[in-house]
Amino acid sequence: MFITFEGIEGAGKGTAMERTSQWLDRQGRRTRLTREPGGSALGRELRALLLDREQSIEPEAELFLYLADRAQHVRQIIRPALARGETVLSDRYADSTLVYQGYGRGLDMAALITLQTLASGDLWPDLTFLLDLPPETGLERARARNKALGLERREGRFEAEDLAFHRRIRQGYLALAAQHPRFRIIDAGRSPEAVFQDIRLILEPLILLY
Ligand code: TYD
Fold this sequence. Notes:
The chain has about 210 residues and is of the alpha/beta class. Helix content is about 60%, strand content about 15%. A 5-stranded parallel beta sheet has the order 2-3-1-4-5, sandwiched between helices.
């Protein structure tokens, strides 16, 4: 089973994924935690370029770097893990491209879907958790985290965008979630424990099917 976690900056995807993977392990599932950008060896190089606040990257160039990351990630990491029967949990995937490059940067949605299909070999998640919360709260959390970890320059390119950008991102996610039944919207403005309990209740019946 291929599960993705999506949401704006500071939604708590990392914590939710950590708990979910520990719980899946206890259920006897072999899980593989991964992320975009940066799930593969080439992807880690691309990640450093993509998130560096000093880089000025044109929207089209940004798109192709994310797609290059995805092409490697799918073929070198995700598909082999799924073929071994593992449950793959990815911190961001295709929906991030549709939302950030589409709703955020204003690139054409139909073109994005065609290119994402090509880059991923038409691999879409079985299930997507959208960790939803107001951008004001998310940005505050993300900036505090980057500051505490000294990552403002290295990881701060998107955190530096204005509130209007992040509002478009949230609306974009909610629009996608309304279109695709694989989405589950989780209220991420609560404690990590409450967020995880929602995720567990959704996964419990599903892991019997996969
Ligand atoms: P990351 O550190 O993974 O996100 P977070 O701050 O939520 O932990 O940074 C990834 C950034 O890249 C994030 O701001 C969203 C952006 N992104 C895109 O614009 N397009 C994409 O296709 C992907 C995968 C990520």
